[in-house]
Design the sequence.
């Protein structure tokens, strides 16, 4: 591709064009596996703590009306978090801050961050006040079925008001995360959500040991959720201040970087929120089935483990690389980065997808079937998990592809993909819900994520040049061919152990799931080696280097 169309694709980038005779940037696919593995480790800690948090929640509240009330109450500020903070803001802020660091200097980049903070405090603060005042109307719209149970809607309104200040806290945390990621400091941001989970776990343990009744427990859980948001911000501050940042919020609507962020965030607000918007739509339907909001929430939390550990980790590394290459007008480099990221996502998520499908009931039984969480809840949650799992690769891949468009200042394209996904999800909800109930909602969400990914992949080829699509498809099929026997092995091992050990004791459940996962993992690694999957060699090489450093 010539230099001229590259300049047209990036009209707002201040970097000068390449001089005649300048060699093109290096465009070899970047080795993201090593850094992604480091981020994955921190993210895995967070996700495991998140599962522990959900286990305590299940023990306290199960899938009761009180659990439904919390799930819906938290969904509103959580949706806004994805729309305005960790999703759209991060996608718009990272490339803008990176560009400012490269072309305007550190001092101006820090000033940009403070201007963004000032605007956030004003806008998000106003949204928080509106959410607290109009909580009854929000709940009536989002969960119309709650009014059929006495006190359920009122309790949801109270929890919503308690947790709405969570939004400005995580918005500030997103700015801190963006600054640190843009400077390739990934550890503290990756640990931020772990701190949120630590606070929630400590709070849940306190509520359980103190013997609070369900209504008191759900209110206390809401308070500890808010405190967890504060911890998510606080854990990043030492690393942030170490970079030279000083907290001086300012309002300057003429700041060029703020204008660019606002321009990107408009479409990005929808562009990165397809999954959350679809969950919002699902909640309206699910509120008509007692227990369904909780079943879907537990199932999606299981999905968040591989999405977070693999998809978010790869996306975190890829976003920084994509932003830098966009600032340098290196489109071939962006193509190589994106292809490498999608291959790594497939290598990591496809076996997770197959494994969740094969072991849905044993995993849900092990993690959640305690206290108020009943065997019937296990079966219902496992069905939702199975349906969600069909879209796991697409969920994670969207997180890698979408930031490329924001780096290119083409933020309307993810908007189109999200609109298609939301439209498809609503259509499938209306079509499937009468026949499959809540299971149809999970299946519709997975199909919508797949549609979103397909649109983004097609449009990237149109905007930034052809990806090696045949190579990506071949790689996906090779990984899938390794993953299917992996799932079969895990299923057979689990069934054989369940027949011999039963499923009543915690030790039996741990052995059954643990050995099944180990067997499936060994089969997958062996077949990846046989099929010459390059990502396996990259990860193994990284492990060998780490061992050599420790020995030295």
Sequence:
């Amino acid at each position: 591709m010539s230099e001229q169309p590259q300049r047209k694709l990036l009209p707002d980038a201040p970097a000068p064009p390449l001089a005649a005779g300048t060699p093109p940037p290096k465009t070899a696919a970047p080795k993201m596996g090593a850094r992604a593995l480091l981020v994955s480790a921190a993210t895995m800690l967070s996700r495991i703590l998140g599962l522990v948090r959900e286990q305590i929640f299940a023990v306290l509240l199960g899938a009761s009306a009180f659990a439904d009330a919390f799930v819906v109450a938290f969904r509103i500020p959580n949706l806004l978090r994805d729309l305005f903070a960790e999703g759209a803001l991060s996608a718009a802020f990272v490339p803008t801050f990176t560009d400012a660091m490269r072309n305007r200097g550190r001092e101006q980049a820090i000033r940009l961050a403070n201007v963004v903070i000032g605007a956030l405090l004003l806008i998000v603060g106003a949204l928080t006040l509106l959410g607290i005042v109009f909580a009854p109307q929000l709940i009536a719209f989002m969960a119309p079925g709650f009014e059929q149970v006495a006190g359920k809607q009122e309790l949801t309104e109270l929890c919503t008001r308690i947790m709405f200040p969570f939004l400005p806290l995580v918005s500030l945390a997103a700015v801190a995360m963006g600054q640190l990621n843009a400077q390739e400091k990934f550890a503290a941001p990756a640990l931020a959500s772990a701190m949120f989970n630590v606070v929630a776990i400590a709070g849940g343990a306190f509520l359980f040991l103190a013997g609070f009744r369900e209504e008191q427990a759900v209110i206390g859980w809401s308070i500890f959720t808010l405190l967890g948001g504060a911890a998510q911000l606080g854990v990043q501050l030492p690393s942030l201040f170490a970079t030279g940042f000083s907290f001086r919020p300012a309002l300057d609507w003429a700041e060029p970087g703020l204008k660019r962020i606002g321009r990107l965030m408009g479409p990005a607000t929808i562009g990165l929120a397809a999954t959350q918007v679809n969950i919002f739509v699902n909640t309206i339907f699910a509120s008509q089935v007692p227990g369904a909001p909780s079943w879907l929430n537990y199932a999606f939390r299981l999905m968040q483990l591989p999405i977070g550990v693999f998809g978010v980790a790869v996306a975190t590394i890829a976003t920084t690389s994509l932003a830098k290459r966009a600032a340098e007008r290196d489109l071939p480099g962006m193509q190589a980065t994106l292809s490498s990221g999608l291959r790594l996502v497939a290598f990591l998520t496809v076996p997770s997808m197959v494994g969740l499908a094969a072991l849905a009931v044993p995993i849900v039984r092990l993690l959640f079937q305690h206290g108020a969480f009943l065997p019937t809840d296990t079966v219902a949650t496992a069905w939702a998990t199975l349906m969600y799992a069909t879209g796991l690769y697409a969920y994670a891949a969207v997180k890698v592809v979408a930031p490329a468009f924001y780096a290119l200042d083409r933020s309307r394209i993810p908007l189109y993909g999200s609109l298609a996904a939301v439209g498809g999800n609503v259509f499938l909800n209306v079509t499937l819900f009468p026949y499959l109930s809540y299971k149809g909602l999970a299946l519709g969400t997975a199909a919508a994520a797949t549609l979103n990914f397909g649109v983004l992949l097609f449009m990237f080829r149109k905007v930034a040049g052809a990806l090696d699509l045949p190579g990506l498809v071949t790689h996906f099929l090779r990984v899938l061919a390794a993953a299917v026997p992996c799932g079969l092995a895990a299923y057979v091992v689990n069934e054989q152990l369940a027949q011999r050990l039963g499923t009543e004791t915690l030790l039996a459940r741990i052995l059954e799931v643990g050995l099944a996962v180990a067997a499936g993992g060994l089969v997958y690694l062996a077949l990846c080696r046989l099929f010459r999957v390059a990502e396996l060699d990259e990860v193994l090489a990284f492990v060998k280097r780490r061992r050599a450093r420790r020995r030295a």
Notes: The radius of gyration is 23 Å.
